[in-house]
What does this fold into?
Amino acid sequence: MANDAELKKIEQENQRLAQLCSMKSEMVSLNAHQIKTSLSAQKWIIKMFLDGDLGALTPEQENLMQKAYESNDRAIELVSDMLADNKKEELAEKKFEFSPVDLSELIDSVKFDFSGEAYSHGVEMIFLHPEEDIPPVDADKEKMRMVLQNLLDNAIKYSGNHGKVFITLSKKDDQVQVSVKDTGVGISPEGQKHIFEKFYRDPEAEKKEITGSGIGLFTAKNVVERHGGKIWFESRPEAGTTFFFTIPIRQKGGVA
Ligand code: ADP
It folds into this structure.
């Protein structure tokens, strides 16, 4: 058994590590922002060439510039993902603040935020509003938002063109259940065993060159379980995926 002095030392060490982690994540975020600014400046210059603002290009020059443009676009997407993941990790580490949350309203708000993304992927999002009144749940609103963002982002990203995403919300006894169904690429049988592991990406997703980092579902599971809920999925390759999660309406011991 550790004595008081040893416990105090471990606690101090933990605090120092938490501080270092937070400094590291701030540094990652700062560097990623700087890289993104520089990549965006390059994009602007390449676009000027492609638009012929600096004179006509030969077909060979145009072909190379187009490749540079696409590669720059991918790099910007990667850095943006990196920034988003960093934010997810920071948020998941923060203390949970519970208050009554109207999930129907939250779903509407997240769905609205993703309208542009869905449009650019040619994906239609449909929220099948519940017929009965769904009571507010005791939840950390910003962390719940992150879970919904992650599921919707994935559903759109892995849907492919002309896909459809259906969201449902229902009450089951003392729990509220949310589902996000897509008509996309599905998850391979091997992938299904590992999907909630940190940094895991289904090789099928990699083959299709869909960018991602494998942090989102790991964080979503962590957040749902910290609410006393469950998260799971049903999926068939090339036939789409449905993610489900439940949240107890009341946290044990009431709202903090
Ligand atoms: P990311 O999407 O950034 O890679 P996630 O943790 O959100 O990270 O997802 C982990 C992996 O699970 C993804 O790389 C992908 O292979 C798979 N996946 C998640 N959601 C879906 C979905 N709706 N359809 C197909 N595959 C999915």
